[in-house]
Amino acid sequence: MARNLRGALLLALGLLLSRPVAGQPAKVPRGFRGIELGMELDQVKEKLAADALFDYRGEPDVSLLPTQQQTLIEVTGSSFIRRAFFQFHERKLYVLILVLDQRRLDYFTLYTTMTGKYGDCTRLDPTEAIWEFPGVRLSLERPLSVKYIDTAVFAALQEQGQAQQSLQEMSRQMFLEQF
Hints:
The chain is of the alpha+beta class. It is about 35% helix and about 30% strand. An eight-stranded antiparallel sheet has the order 3-4-5-6-10-9-8-7. It is globular, with a radius of gyration of 21 Å. It starts with a helix and ends with a helix.
């Protein structure tokens, strides 16, 4: 009995000590099960092939996106993961999305777990909870998915997209002026 009580107290103390303290930054979450933002495409393929939680079959799961510099790996999962998406820019992982099995997990349990590990979220609304860290955005979205985003790459791609959109709009306008 005393041994069980001592073990429970040590576990509780460990959980309290691992919880972020107000004003103290939490460890930046960069990925899941050893697959982290910024990893090379081939490294991620190796990790997926070695992890039984993902049903990665190799090249058929890899598809190209509209631009040459982007690649997407979409795999089914087993156990708690229904699907997973790994998006790359210039062969480096910049978005990781896990769609979780709602029969095995629920939003509140995952929210509580993530709050315990990373502290209070930066933004909370009925559709998502967001944690912002230097260079990383972590979100828990309803019905039940988790997203890791490299914010520097994402912002650069958004800027390029906006610049491309402006160029297309100018070309369109110049074309229309010819009539």
